[in-house]
Design brief:
Blueprint (H helix, E strand, L loop, with lengths): L2 E2 L1 E2 L10 H21 L2 E4 L3 E5 L6 E3 L8 E7 L11 E7 L14 E3 L2 E8 L13 E9 L3 E3 L15 E10 L5 E7 L9 E4 L10 E6 L5 E2 L2 E2 L1 E6 L8 E3 L3 E3 L6 E5 L4 E7 L5 E6 L6 E2 L6 E9 L4 E8 L1
Keywords: Signal
Pfam family, one: Por_Secre_tail
Organism: Kaistella antarctica
Length: about 325
């Protein structure tokens, strides 16, 4: 089965000072020189994650995994998001309350629709019970379609429990500062609802650092703020770089379909241009081939991510 590379149109840019831009370009040029001169790959550590809020309150809320259709908004103050500045947000995840006895779901299920939108937002203190009024700028749909959930995907046994099931975006979205709004619109599980770990509306940070609202069939309501883990993937850089043997990519140069020969099984691919900007990203299954026919002719970097979150970057040419 071929893996189709999805090209996305989010062209937001992180505003940097001239000196920062020059430093980034210099670092990237050095890394490119290593790859081009020796044919090595760059290996980086796992993607960065941020949990909001950074606490462990014992509340719960029925939201993303409710049995009926729901629309939810999570509003997060920019003071909690500094570690994500300039990075591409690639997934979100929720966890079960520590009091939950069994992993969920008991059997595999598929939610018919699970759409995610990202944008900037109003201040948490200015949140209204009106979805549209809380959006600042343009909302970008980063995920759409059905959501399969394997049996036991959300695990138990810890306090707090792990964020064990990632909901991956089909297109990355760069966070460039400001308050963040995550909006989820889903069709429901079709079975009984599953509560997830949350912060109550009486929390010290609720209404100042974060806020939430939801709607099912009736009015829009205030809701507990669900603990959310945000995964981010920064622009290709020099963090935690280790040079090693490159995975074999063939054919190279490539016209339409490209393959990777490696002992590892990769779970996603990302393609960067030679300035370090991500231009395509897609989940992968095992060692399936990649269709790169839509790429313009030129040189690119391919980043391969394995199931542990470790990455390798190597160069290829599109002809």
């Amino acid at each position: 089965m071929k893996t189709k590379i999805t090209f996305y149109k989010n062209r937001n840019h992180f505003t940097k000072t001239i000196s920062e831009r020059m430093l980034t370009k210099r670092i990237f040029s050095v890394l490119l020189g290593i790859i081009m001169m020796f044919g090595f790959s760059i290996k980086t550590k796992a993607q960065s994650t941020l949990v909001v809020p950074n606490s462990n309150e014992g509340s719960a809320f029925i939201g993303p995994f409710g049995n009926a259709a729901r629309q939810l908004q999570f509003i997060i103050d920019d003071s909690l998001l500094t570690s994500l500045l300039g990075k591409n947000l690639t997934s979100i995840s929720f966890r079960l309350p520590a009091s939950t006895a069994d992993a969920w779901p008991a059997t595999a299920l598929t939610m018919a629709a699970f759409d995610i939108y990202l944008s900037n937002s109003v201040e948490p203190a200015n949140r209204q019970l009106d979805f549209a009024a809380n959006v600042v700028g343009t909302q970008t749909k980063v995920r759409s379609g059905s959501l399969p959930i394997a049996a036991g995907a959300l695990t138990v046994g810890s306090n707090p429990n792990d964020f064990s099931f990632k909901i991956t975006f089909s297109s990355a979205w760069q966070y460039n500062g400001g308050n963040l709004l995550i909006e989820v619109r889903h069709s429901g599980t079709g079975i009984s609802s599953r509560s997830v770990h949350a912060v109550s509306t009486s929390s010290a940070g609720y209404g100042t650092l974060y806020s939430a609202l939801w709607q099912s069939t009736g009015n829009v309501n205030q809701g507990n703020f669900i603990y959310v883990e945000i995964t981010a993937d920064g622009q290709l850089g020099a963090s935690s770089v280790k040079v090693g043997a490159s995975p074999v990519i063939y054919p190279n140069p490539v016209k339409d379909t490209m393959y990777v020969k490696s002992d590892k099984e990769y779970t996603s691919y990302s393609i960067y241009n030679m300035t370090g900007q991500m231009i395509a990203s897609e989940k992968a299954s095992g060692k399936s081939p990649m269709n790169v026919a839509r790429l313009p002719v030129g040189q690119y970097l391919l980043k391969l991510t394995d199931k542990s979150g470790n990455t390798e970057v190597t160069q290829f040419i599109k002809k």
